[in-house]
Design a protein that fits this description.
- By secondary structure, this protein is mostly helical.
- It is 67% helix and 0% strand.
- The longest helix is centred in the middle third of the chain and has 37 residues.
- It starts with 24 loop residues before the first helix and ends with a helix.
């Protein structure tokens, strides 16, 4: 009968950075899932270039990216504290630990990029399944094209406005101009109320006082003032005369 050993298995003990690469793929996968501090060790080993390519791929699997990001973030903070403590004590290991900190920060930046790329890919997959284009992609592309070809963009915008029978006007400066234009063009149809009419009849000073009172009393907001702002009527009267 073979003798049994009470020694912990590799995935159940804290390995040194260079030892992690000696694990086979199955043991390495178990090692990552066993404890968070094991994942931190593997993340630092990967940042230092100790892992085999197959281990690197397992560590950076899409389903593990968020955990890897957390592990690298933890390692960054732990190493930062260690560097400061070693520097204060003039520890000869300061240079090596500082190098590890730089490696971890580089790896963390890369993982952030991988996670962002994964989010974009998942978004494109969802949009393709729904039969719609990605709004973020379309908006970004339009912004780039408008910046690269301003004259052509202005021409196409004028054509689109004419086709939609919209009045030709300069681009709105801010959201307040957009609201006013929407109200003037009949796209915003919030009903008027006696309270709104009273506000419209007030002078500049009285209106500013109403806005100031409304801002101070967050628990008892003026519904007429809110309706007036949402409708766009007199919005510029407010924004040009801040309380």
């Amino acid at each position: 009968m073979p003798a049994t050993s009470d020694a912990p298995q590799p995935q159940h003990r804290r390995l040194r950075l260079r030892e992690v690469a000696d694990l086979d793929d199955t043991a390495f996968s178990d090692y990552l899932q066993d404890r968070f501090d094991h994942l931190v060790t593997a993340a630092i080993a990967d940042a230092a270039g100790y892992l085999r390519p197959a281990q690197h791929d397992l560590l950076h699997a899409p389903g593990r990216l968020h955990d890897l990001r957390d592990a690298l973030t933890f390692a960054e903070g732990d190493l930062q504290v260690a560097v400061e403590r070693m520097t204060y004590r003039r520890d000869p290991r300061t240079a090596r630990t500082s190098r590890q900190l730089r490696q971890v920060r580089t790896a963390l930046h890369q993982v952030h990029r991988e996670a962002a790329a994964l989010r974009r890919a998942e978004s494109r997959t969802r949009d393709a399944a729904a039969g719609t284009a990605s709004t973020d992609t379309v908006t970004t592309a339009r912004g780039w094209l408008a910046h690269a070809y301003p004259a052509r963009f202005t021409q196409l915008l004028a054509q689109a406005q004419a086709a939609a029978r919209l009045p030709a006007r300069p681009l709105a400066k801010d959201i307040f101009d957009t609201i006013e234009e929407g109200w003037a063009d009949g796209h915003l149809t919030a009903p008027s109320t006696p309270g709104v009419e009273q506000l419209l009849a007030r002078g500049v000073v009285a209106f500013r006082s109403a806005v100031a009172d409304d801002a101070r009393d967050q628990n008892d907001r003026d519904p007429a003032l809110a309706t007036r702002c949402c409708s766009g009527a007199g919005t510029r009267h407010w924004t040009n005369s801040p309380p």
